[in-house]
Amino acid sequence: MADAVLVPLLAGFLAAHPALRLDVAATDRIVDPRQEGIDVAFRFGWLRGAELGLVARRIGAYEGVLCAAPLYLDAAGGAPRSIAELGRHAWIGYAGFGGERQMLALWDEAGRRHEVTLACRVRTSSAFQVRDWALAGIGITRLPLMLVADALAEGRLQRVLPRWRFEGPSLHAVYPRDRLRPARVRALLAHLQAQRGPHPPG
Question: Transmembrane region positions (predicted)?
């Protein structure tokens, strides 16, 4: 999922620094750069907070949506009309964000914060799989809008609780706090900070 966001940013960095080369490894699992000898790790999605000894710098924020397939909502007796009803639906969760029960914070139209605990029917580390499980009618989930815009436009997915807001996904650069950063890493971080991604409306 990060590829669609990260590759254009890194391509711009290479264009600005023609003498540098990048070695990029892509994976859905959470990587600790200290253990794997990585200068900078990038995480796209909902960061739970940087681990002890790591710095997480947000590069961009993106719009997210709650959504489900009409076939799931029809079978479940309709879309939830409140967060209390949302808590009674099957949830498609992300691995690494807790166990079988995961918490989601939402803001109502008055700006008040609410929390709901959701029971996962499926958990996966891949946003693409989360989307596919939703399309298969397994439950409700949260996804980056860029990943489901076509499915929403075509009616294969529909928004759930559209008047409620929640924190959308972000792209973070994650790196060791105490490690002496080479000039190439400092240059990369400066470039990414200058090219911060789009922020969601509102």
Answer: none
